[in-house]
Design a protein that fits this description.
Elements (H helix, E strand, L loop, with lengths): L3 H6 L9 H7 L1 H19 L11 E3 L1 H7 L5 H13 L3 E5 L7 E5 L12
Antiparallel strand pairs: 1-3, 2-3
Helix pairs in contact: 2-3, 3-5
Amino acid sequence: MSSPIDSLTYQAPAHAFNPLYATAYGIEEAILIAHFHHWLNNHKSFGCNGNGGSTSKYMTIKEMTAQVPYMTETQVRRFIYSLKSQGIVSKCPIPGPGATHRYTLNESSIVGKGGVS
């Protein structure tokens, strides 16, 4: 017999983050690092490379917020700014209509990935 909690558990995909990143940067930043890891690894597997051969993801804040619905657009923007100011994420605007940016994860700057521990 299943419990009501079982039905809630499987209604949406699970989100996870690395506790080492949460300790170093904050839980929200760790969630976004995991989000970028997921999408950039997905793009890498399909050979989608951005500027200079690095793998990047094109996305608006609104699109990203839809994928992390427990954060507001203001929070996503603030946490991306935090990651950018720490050198974890690079963000470049895409010319044209809309507010789309190209995001790249600077893995060598992440704690435990070659960055400062």
